[in-house]
Amino acid sequence: MEVLLLFFFVVNAIAFGLAGYDKYLAVRHKSRISEKILFIVAFFGGSIGLLLAMLLFRHKTRKSSFIIKFTIILLAQMVLIYLKLDHKI
């Protein structure tokens, strides 16, 4: 269990850092981090970190296609957690 918590802490820290760095690059009109990379990190457990970065840095909050895809990932993770807790998969 401790390893799993450490994994989620690290992956969320990475998601937060990537989103913050992408915002930094965006403001300076430099080459950006791919949305695909942000989605992959979110998919593998970094949703909370990415969400916090989006809110704190106001990053990707107006891009509806990003919000929709991110919401789908977040909802899928919530369903999986619910099923895991409810049915002991």
Key words describing this protein structure:
0% strand, mainly alpha, single chain, 89 residues
Describe this structure in words.
The protein is 82% helix and 0% strand. Helix 1 packs across helix 2 (35-57) and helix 2 (35-57) packs across helix 3 (64-87). The two termini are 16 Å apart. It has helices at residues 2-27, 35-57, 64-87. The protein has three helices and no strands. The chain is globular, with a radius of gyration of 14 Å. The mean pLDDT is 94. By secondary structure, it is an all-alpha fold.
**Global outline:** globular
Percent of residues in helices: over 70%
Global Rg: 14 Å
Helix/strand-derived class?
mainly alpha
Task: Report on the biggest sheet.
Answer: none
What is the total tally of β strands?
0
**Uncertain stretches of 5 or more adjacent residues:** none
Roughly what is the average pLDDT, rounded to an integer? Answer: 94
What fraction of residues sit in β-strands?
Answer: under 5%
Order of helices and strands: HHH
Number of helices: 3
Oligomer state equals single chain
How far is the first residue's CA from the last residue's CA? 16 Å
How do you describe this structure in short?
The protein is mainly α.
Furnish the topology, listing elements before pairings.
Elements: H1 2-27, H2 35-57, H3 64-87
Helix pairs in contact: 1-2, 2-3
